[in-house]
Structures are given as structure tokens and as C-alpha cells.
């Protein structure tokens, strides 16, 4: 009977020698544990193939919880993440670590009025000194006053330049690599922020603009560069994968690359090949954060032929991502870094060439 053809649920007892790989493969047999097992296998067995370009989105307060150091930096160092879309807040709080500042475990049950009086900031159960914000603000305002920032640029170029300064601070402090921005700089992993004004980084850029600073974020460059990355992955004979942590604007920013290619630029394409999301958002409220991969097919975001290669885990990212990371590092060899930041010019040339052809055929809709 085909309905009973699935593997029998009969896990071995967990012992002191049981590994994360053992747990994922032998214990995660049902419910969202089974979805996480499917996610781990999709990531390792398909998404980490050499010809796949892996995008990752970051939403929610992940970096304050130490996710950069525990998961994201190792994934980048192993060549498992090729480009990123993140909220500005995650990159701002990531900078604290690169500047040698500390975050502390706290309690969600302490009075926030008292915390304010004591100069302590709370992110649920994470506490840190209010001066961490002031010192990080001062770092950004000083750095973006440098001559190399006095022009419009994509957020990827901005974050690459910032990563150089964060790396220099890590070296001066002797703290080792502590920041996602620093790691992304070293491995030339482009990091885009779809809403650059919606964070303390954007607030400091705005403040400097009042002083005559000429830095501006070129959001059109962000949209076209990310579309060019995806098109380049496909036209080189490879595939495109999305690892979505949370939802929100970064999720859409990863996925809208395909509608930008197909719908707006009129270039022949089918959608992303692999879809892996970790989220706590429900699909029935109509929000993008909970939208399923099958719904994304209707927008052209996901290749309909690739829906079997789509997994959604309804879990907290701070629980699921460390397990996914440990499983991947134990189960897959390092990949050669793609260093996509240095390839932006050639990727854009390809996109512009195909767009010009689409216009001549009367397919593009951007006019």
C-alpha cells in the first residue's frame, strides 16, 4: 500500500554520543522536526551543489542573539552563502560585535521603565548598554564621512566598504572575526538592504546628509544588481536557491528578482529553483512573510517544476538555523566562494544585454 510506503518511525535512543547529524536523520521523523530534516537534506543535497547560487535573507533580531558568529560567518567561510538581503537593523547590531561591544542575556519580565532609567536597552531577553548604540552611531558617522563614501552607491557596495572598517577594528582589538559585515567583505558576499532608511544605519546616513555628506543609497542599483546575480546564475547553466530566515521585506527582495527579470524586463526565465524558508508566520493572514512557495509560483518567483524542492519549516530561526548549520558543515565539503561582489559589472552587462534584446522583441514593460 503506497500510503504506508514511508520510512517506519522507530528512532534509536539518544545517548551521550548522539550527534546533530544523528538527530536530524534518525529522530526528526514528524511534524516540524520532519520539515527541518527535509530542509537540511534539501540544503546539503541540492542547494549546495557547485552550480547553485545561494541567496539568504535575514529578518528579525537575529544578529543580537549571536547568529552571525554561530551560523552565518561559518556558512560564508564554507562557501555556503553567496549573497544576502538583510534588514538594516541586523547589520547595525552585527556591528556591535565587530566593535568589541557586548550583548547580555536578560529577562523579558524586567520592567522596561526601570531599564530605561538604568540605561539598558532590551530586545526581548537580550540586554545591552544604551552607550552601545551611541558608540555604534559614532562609528558610522565617522566612517561615512570618508571621501570614498561621498557618492551614490548600491547598498552592497556600501556594506562592502563598511566591512573593511569593521574588519580593521576587529584586528585592532584582537578579537578575531566577530562580524558578518567583516566576513562578507573578506569573501566578497554582497549584502543588500531593501529598506536602507529603516534602521539606525540609515538614520545616521540621514543625519550626515544634513551636514552636507553626499552618500546616497541607489535602490535602483540594488534591484537591478540582484536580478543580474540571479540571471547570471541561470545563464551560466546553474541554478538559483533562496534560504529565507523569517519573512518581511528581505524575503520579497530575494524573490522579486525573478519578476523583475520576467515581468518588468521581459527576459525569458522560469523562477528560482530551490526554496527553503524558516518562519513563524501563518499563510492565511495574507502577509508575504507567511506566503507559501506554491503561492510564489503564481508570481513567477519560483519555477513551478521545482516545487518538490521547496520546504517551509514553522520554527524559530534561532533554533532551526544552528541545527541546519551544524548538519551542513558536518555533511558537505567546503564550496569555492563565488565572490559575487567583484562580478557585479559583468553580471549587469549580461542583464542589460538581454533587456535590450527583450525591448527589440517588444517584450519588456519598463518603458
List strands and helices in order, with pairings.
Layout: H1 20-27, H2 31-47, E1 52-58, H3 67-77, E2 83-86, H4 88-98, E3 104-105, H5 112-118, E4 120-123, E5 126-129, H6 130-143, E6 152-153, H7 155-173, H8 180-187, E7 191-192, H9 200-210, E8 216-217, H10 219-235, E9 239-245, H11 248-255, H12 257-264, E10 274-279, H13 293-297, E11 310-314, H14 317-331, H15 344-360
Parallel strand pairs: 1-2, 1-9, 2-7, 6-8, 9-10, 10-11
Antiparallel strand pairs: 3-5, 4-5
Structural features:
alpha/beta; Deoxyhypusine Synthase; three-stranded antiparallel β-sheet; 367 residues; globular; six-stranded parallel β-sheet
What does this 3D model show about the protein?
48% of the residues lie in helices and 12% in strands. With 367 residues, it is an alpha/beta fold. It has a single domain (2-99, 154-199, 217-360), classed as Deoxyhypusine synthase (Deoxyhypusine Synthase), CATH 3.40.910.10. The strands form three sheets. Strands 7-2-1-9-10-11 form a six-stranded parallel sheet, sandwiched between helices. A three-stranded antiparallel sheet has the order 3-5-4. A hairpin with a 2-residue loop joins strand 4 and strand 5. The mean pLDDT is 94.
